[in-house]
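step=encode ok
step=design start
structure_in=
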């Protein structure tokens, strides 16, 4: 009788494709790409447990108002990061353009004209930055930092260190109006971000921005005028900073050389925490807004639980360091 023997090796069933996809590596990538939302939930829950007031509607409204100006500045910086550059003049732009609006209202100009002048001033500042960087090939880090110092110095010289107040109810309307019980200011941030998200994801210009930041030489080989894309992006960033300047001065109903102080590094950290790469060509609007919300939540939470202001600054510095650390890990993993 013939013995039937089993083959020396038996093929094992393959692992399901879904299980292979969700490997440890994929989980790490998912965590790095969504770290801002993970941290936001963790900090919100922790702050809520430490202080019941944190999770109230009133505090949520306060967080949204505080995050509005930071979110707009983060969007302005994030747009320039996408093309592989950076705009460090956004806070100087905010203060100077806001000053222009308030000076016009004090001179008797209509509020709507003053608002338009604020936004236009921001766009002009962005155009000057863009010309220096796109046409003269100036280093964006140094060039925009110098522009920010010039603008801040100009505000100090014009105001002589004094606070100038708004003389127009129309100008201060957006910053101090509520729809029901909800402030109007965050709605402006939402609208601007929706428009930006549509531009980045659905338009030819948006694709050119990502292409320029991802690989400039390949973009030029494909027929993209990268210098023009840079100029246009800096104009857009300046315009957004001008909108932030209007909202800040509308909310405060005044301007002085110190408004916006301390916002610059957070405006840079927010998009990086939210997934915008320092090397360009990568990032989404929703991520950088998450970064602005996270920074605001951390600052408000620490204040609510009576942490010293000195340690609030320490926490802000750690967040910035963490943002750069996460970006470095993302870049290393994508290079593997």
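sequence_out=
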């Amino acid at each position: 009788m013939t013995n039937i023997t089993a083959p020396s090796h038996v093929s094992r069933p393959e692992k399901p494709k879904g299980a292979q996809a969700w490997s440890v590596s994929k989980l790490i990538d998912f965590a790095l790409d969504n770290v801002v939302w993970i941290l936001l939930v963790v900090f919100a829950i922790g702050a809520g447990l430490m202080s019941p007031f944190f999770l109230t509607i009133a505090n949520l409204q306060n967080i949204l108002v505080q995050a509005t100006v930071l979110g707009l500045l983060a969007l302005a910086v994030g747009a320039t990061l996408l093309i592989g550059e950076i705009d460090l003049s956004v806070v100087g732009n905010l203060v100077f353009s806001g000053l222009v609006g308030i000076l016009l209202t004090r001179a008797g100009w209509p509020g709507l004209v003053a608002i338009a002048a604020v936004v236009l001033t921001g766009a002009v500042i962005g155009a000057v930055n863009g010309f220096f960087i796109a046409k003269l090939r100036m280093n964006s880090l140094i060039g925009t930092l110098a522009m920010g110092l010039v603008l801040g110095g100009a505000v100090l010289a014009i105001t002589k260190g004094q606070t100038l107040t708004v003389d127009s109810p129309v100008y201060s309307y957006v910053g101090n109006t509520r729809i029901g019980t909800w402030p109007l200011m965050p709605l402006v941030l939402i609208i601007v971000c929706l428009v930006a998200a549509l531009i980045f994801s659905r338009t030819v210009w948006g694709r050119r921005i990502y292409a320029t930041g991802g690989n400039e030489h390949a973009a030029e080989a494909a027929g993209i005028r990268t210098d023009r894309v840079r100029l246009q992006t800096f104009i857009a960033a300046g315009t957004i900073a001008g909108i932030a300047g209007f909202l800040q001065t509308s909310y405060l109903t005044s301007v002085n050389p110190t408004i916006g102080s301390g916002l610059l590094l957070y405006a840079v950290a927010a998009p990086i925490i939210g997934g915008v790469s320092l090397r360009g060509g990568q990032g989404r609007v929703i991520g950088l807004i998450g970064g602005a919300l996270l920074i605001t939540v951390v600052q408000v939470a620490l204040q609510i639980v009576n942490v010293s202001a000195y340690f609030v600054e320490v926490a802000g510095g750690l967040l910035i360091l963490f943002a750069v650390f996460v970006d470095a890990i993302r870049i290393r993993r994508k290079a593997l």
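step=design ok
step=annotate ok -> The mean pLDDT is 88.
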